[in-house]
Design brief:
The structure holds 2 protein chains of 2 kinds. Chain A is an all-alpha fold. Chain A has a domain at 82-342. Chain A is 68% helix and 3% strand. Chain A is globular. Chain B has 2 domains: 58-246, Penicillin-binding protein 2a (Domain 2) (Alpha-Beta Complex); 315-647, DD-peptidase/beta-lactamase superfamily (Beta-lactamase), CATH 3.40.710.10. The longest helix of chain B has 39 residues, at 4-42. In chain B, helix 15 (328-337) packs across helix 18 (397-406) and helix 17 (385-395) crosses helix 20 (442-448). By secondary structure, chain B is an alpha+beta fold. In chain B, the strands form 6 sheets. In chain B, strands 2, 3, 4, 5 and 10 form a 5-stranded mixed β-sheet that branches. In chain B, strands 12-11-19-18-17 form a 5-stranded antiparallel β-sheet, with helices on both faces. In chain B, strand 8 and strand 9 form a beta hairpin. Classes of the chains: A mainly alpha, B alpha+beta. Chains A and B meet through helix 7, helix 11, helix 13 and helix 14 of A and helix 1 and helix 2 of B.
Chain lengths: 376, 648
């Protein structure tokens, strides 16, 4: 409330704010959230225990946080954008020294109440940061080398830090989100084409610096039967689970692939697989439709926002959200290599939930304070 | 700071750019959706199968072997309850430890443990290992007591092969043992029904009829998790028992035969002269087939293998012997059929001082003082060698060979039923040219006439020969497994119609005969020979006179034979040693063939005692006891035959 009574010119009554809330978006998030709780419940073979309890708690806490953050003025995010970014970078550096390792990578910092994964926060920070960055730049300047180089450096720092954890999946998502905003801001298409070509040329070099497990995952992606009990196991089992689900699925709590432990990482990256096995093609379509609606609502909010910052943020976040969803689903159906990317809201994991809810909170604040002109 | 116009410009750009992005998103969403459609709708079945393959694992349950009985339904190969201990490998945390613990509870020998480790190497991680197939009740109850300490160990009640008449039938029934790689490769039925620990027939009927006996395995389907742990049983397709087999063997006669052969090496075969049913096929010494069921110990195996009397050899059909004088009725028949001699033809046998001479080579009769002037009947009855030297010379080996083959010599009696059966040798000039690449000498014809020289027969062949003489000269189909197609009445009427069939001279040429076809040219010739055999057993001076039955109903006709193992030198003849004084390996084989009852022949038999001395002393007396038993059981057998026919 302190923030809402800040020095901004536009003032809103509490009723106005409540009226401005996008309830439809909240309902969609709530529905996906409850679906996620049931899915996690299913991974535990219908026992309300550790994972389900944790997931439910996190969802409720962060959902509440999302609602509270909605009432934080959007100008606050504009002003604190670089601080947010720097905080994210600091946390990523902190991981290097104080991080907790799990299954070969160092991604988390212990904050007593939860293990925070700064790279997840960085996914949002980069969007906020870039939205602010381009908010101030005149359209004529965007193509200049100065304004081309700065965001690239801003993007490379977190990507490098995350890749070395190592966490290729999150790094790709951060890079993808950043690039989406650069694109939205209007950078000439030729730069994207050039960089695409450069990437293609440097691909052998990139591959040579990949960790052996990353290489094997990529090779396995192209031929899962290369090592059916090793690296290819996840893709094969995931495809079997999804395929055997059929049109209507095996039914809630009836997914044999996950129940009989054939499915790896079913709580996190492969939660869609479990969902799809139990609810089939129809269920998957419903879930994808819900996500599409969510993205649509976010884009709508972007359109209704007055400020360029809010627009850029909403469109950027919507694109990032799409990217997260696409990469995850494409990964579990065998269209992309397994890189380790959670499915927003559905996957088990506090940091991912936190970052999505934080992102949605900022979106909602864009909606509530849509008339705010920013940066003048 | 930011101009309004620029803001408008930027808004325009962002909208355009967003449009492109949304289009891309819709495109990507389309790809994901079509992929899901492809997986879940188009290829659903494929993935369903894969999912079931994942979660469902099949365990084969062992098939039950069929039971084998004798003709009278006495069980001669049974399935017996056994106590076993199995080790489920996926539940074992430390294999070495488990074996060590088991060793202390049940007695496992070092070589058994070695075998277990070898088996383990070949097993899959979810396989079940059979640690011991046959535990004593004590071991089994002790095992149950300590079960909580043995993870993965399972006490199992199973069945295994058991031969109630252990030694008496091993050469007929055979035994079972673990299926080898070769067994699995050779027989599809075994491959299809293979489960670890499956027993397959190794020799005998168990081997020959394995495909019928083995049965079909059952299938238990379990749902398993990713680590292979059974979660629940989904279905159980029960195993089935193999076909039960009725043999033609008469257990009691078989047992008597084995008893008569006890402590000697030899064979006794008994056959129905019409149906060809092998009623007894005894071979001595024998061994216990039960020892092979769970793998024979090295000690027991060596004992059997090193026995000088060769228990592993099925002497009835794999032992080759010169037929000796048992060939004489056939030689006489051949000479009569070809018209070489008639009943008036006589040869003088003058003893060792005046032996039969051919091109300077001397051929002696077994009787030192000679038989005097011999007719055919007397020559068979008293088994005069000189007479048959002369008849053989006149007949020639090729004609003799033709008739001998016709009556069952020189080919496998049971065809390919037993892999170990031997064909023997019926020599001819052509045979010698082909096999030995030498020309035939007349002297060889002469000794072939008394069943010596190249000629080699199995006891079962001699039994078949006797049967086909005694039934009046008709080809029969020997069999060991009850076959409802072989019907006594049909055979008899077929023979009756054959009897009146007119035959041409072609019958004396080489000719392929069908079953129950007549083999002779003139029936009187056969009658003469059979009558001579009657004389041999029932008249004074007959070689088996001492073994005769006085009671009419047991009266039989026979022919003794003494098969030389080595050439008798003049010195041997001079010494004329008693049997006891000759080294075992150099003693003659004693042979005897017979059929009974004489007036209405029905059964033929052959007796062979390896190194038993003379046929009349060692072999014929056994026939006396056997024939009584065979004829006493005739009514019973006929009753069973009728019953079986009615069922069919």
């Amino acid at each position: 409330m302190i923030l809402s009574t800040s020095l901004n010119s536009t003032s809103y009554s509490f009723i106005d704010k409540l009226k401005a809330v996008d309830y439809f978006l909240i309902i969609i998030v709530a529905i996906i959230g409850s679906m996620s709780v049931f899915s996690i419940y299913s991974t535990e073979s219908g026992n309300f225990s550790f994972y389900t309890k944790n997931h439910l708690t996190r969802f409720l806490v962060f959902f509440f946080m999302f609602l509270v953050l909605s009432f934080v003025r959007v100008s606050f995010w504009y002003r604190q954008a670089y601080i947010f970014y720097i905080l994210g970078i600091l946390l990523l550096i902190l991981v290097i020294f104080f991080g907790i390792s799990a299954s070969g990578s160092k991604r988390w910092i212990n904050f007593f109440i939860m293990n925070l994964q700064p790279s997840e926060l960085m996914k949002i920070a980069i969007i906020v940061c870039f939205a602010r960055y381009y908010h101030r730049i005149q359209s004529s300047d965007i193509q200049s080398y100065k304004y081309l180089l700065q965001p690239i450096i801003l993007l490379l720092i977190p990507c490098y830090l995350v890749i070395t954890q190592p966490d290729l999946g999150t790094a790709i998502l951060i890079a993808g989100s950043g690039l989406a905003i650069i694109w939205l801001a209007g950078l000439n298409l030729k730069y994207f084409i050039y960089s695409g070509l450069i990437l293609l040329v440097s691909l052998p070099f990139v591959i040579s610096i990949l960790k052996p497990y990353q290489k094997s995952r990529i090779l396995t992606f192209f031929n899962p039967d290369r090592d059916p009990l090793g690296a290819g196991y996840q893709i094969i089992q995931s495809k079997i689970a999804i395929g055997s689900g059929g049109l209507l699925g095996k039914g809630f709590l009836q997914g044999t692939q996950s129940y009989l432990e054939f499915l790896p990482e079913k709580h996190t990256d492969f939660i869609f697989t479990l969902f799809s096995e139990e609810f089939g093609f129809a269920g998957s379509m419903v879930l994808i439709l819900l996500y599409a609606l969510l993205i649509y609502r976010i884009i709508r909010i972007g359109f209704s926002s007055r400020s360029f910052f809010a627009k850029l943020y909403c469109f950027g976040f919507a694109s990032a959200l799409f990217l997260y969803i696409f990469v995850n689903i494409a990964m579990v159906v065998g269209l992309l290599p397994i890189v380790g990317a959670p499915l927003p809201i559905m996957s088990y994991g506090g940091s991912s939930m936190l970052s999505i809810m934080l992102g949605l909170g900022i979106v909602m604040s864009c909606k509530i304070y849509s008339r705010d002109p920013i940066g003048n | 700071m930011i101009k309004k116009t620029d803001n408008l410009n930027k808004n325009k750009i962002i909208s355009r750019r967003l449009f492109v992005l949304v289009a891309a998103k819709i495109g990507l969403l389309g790809i994901v959706t079509s992929r899901l459609y492809n997986l879940q709708i188009s290829e659903k079945q494929k993935y369903e199968v894969l999912s079931d393959k994942n979660r469902i694992r099949e365990w084969k349950t062992p098939p039950q072997r069929g039971i084998i009985t004798d003709y009278f339904n006495n069980v001669i190969a049974d399935n017996q309850r056994v106590y076993q201990v199995h080790l489920s490998l996926e539940e074992v945390s430390n294999f070495n430890n488990s074996i060590f613990k088991l060793k202390n509870i049940i007695s496992l020998k070092e070589d058994e443990i070695k075998k277990i480790y070898e088996k383990k190497e070949k097993s899959k991680p979810w396989d079940t290992l059979i640690i011991s197939e046959n535990l004593s009740w004590n071991e089994f109850s002790k095992l149950n007591l300590y079960l909580h300490e043995l993870d993965g160990a399972k006490p199992v009640l199973s069945t295994s092969r058991y031969y109630p008449y252990s030694n008496d039938l091993v050469h007929v029934v055979g035994y079972v043992g673990d299926a080898t790689i070769q067994d699995i490769q050779n027989k599809k039925k075994i491959e299809e029904n293979f489960v670890p620990g499956l027993k397959v027939g190794k020799i005998g009927i168990e081997n020959s009829k394995d495909i019928d006996l083995i049965g079909n395995h059952g299938t238990k389907r379990y749902e398993v998790n990713a680590s292979g742990k059974k979660i629940s049983e989904i279905s159980y397709n029960k195993e089935t028992q193999g076909e039960n087999l009725r043999t033609t063997i008469d257990l009691e006669i078989q047992q008597l035969a084995q008893e008569l052969l006890k402590n000697q090496a030899g064979s006794i075969c008994v056959m129905d002269i019409y149906t060809g049913e092998v009623i007894t096929m005894a071979s001595s010494p024998t061994y216990d087939p039960n020892k092979f069921t769970h793998g024979i110990s090295t000690k027991d195996w060596n004992e059997i293998k090193n026995n000088k009397l060769r228990p592993l050899l099925n002497k009835s059909l794999a032992g080759l012997y010169s037929p000796g004088s048992t060939i004489k009725p056939l030689v006489a028949l051949a000479a009569l059929e070809y018209g070489i001699i008639d009943t008036k033809f006589k040869v003088n046998c003058e003893g060792h001082d005046h032996p039969y001479e051919l091109y300077g080579e001397r051929y002696h009769c077994w009787k030192k003082n000679g038989h005097g002037l011999m007719s055919m009947r007397n020559a068979i009855k008293q088994s005069c060698d000189i007479y048959f030297y002369e008849v053989a010379r006149l007949l020639g080996v090729d004609k003799l060979s033709l008739i001998a083959k016709r009556y069952g010599l020189g080919s496998k009696v049971l065809e390919d039923f037993f892999s170990e059966e031997k064909k023997g040798i019926v020599p001819s000039t052509k045979w010698k040219k082909q096999v030995l690449e030498q020309s035939w000498y007349l002297g060889e014809t002469v000794i072939t006439g008394i069943g010596q020289g190249y000629i080699q027969t199995t006891p079962l062949q001699l039994c078949l020969m006797t049967a086909q003489l005694a039934n009046g000269g008709y080809k029969i189909k020997p069999n060991l497994i009850y076959d409802k197609e072989i019907d006594l009445d049909k055979i008899k009427s077929k023979i009756e119609s054959e009897k009146n069939k007119s035959v041409s001279q072609k019958i004396l040429k080489d000719h392929e005969f069908k079953h129950y076809e007549r083999l002779y040219r003139n029936q009187n010739n056969l009658k003469l020979v059979l009558d001579a055999m009657y004389g041999s057993t029932n008249e004074q001076f007959g070689t088996s006179f001492r073994s005769r039955h006085k009671e009419d109903k047991y009266k039989f006709a026979g022919k003794t034979g003494t098969s030389q193992v080595k050439r008798i030198t003049d010195q041997d003849r001079e010494l004329d040693l008693d049997l006891d004084e000759i080294e075992y390996k150099s003693r003659d084989h004693a042979l005897f063939i017979a059929f009974a009852p004489y007036d209405k022949p029905r059964y033929s038999l052959s007796v062979l005692i390896e190194h038993g001395g003379s046929g009349s002393k060692a072999a014929a007396p056994l026939a006396n006891k056997l024939i009584k038993k065979i004829l006493d059981r005739h009514e019973l057998r006929e009753k069973i035959r009728k019953d079986l026919k009615n069922i069919a």
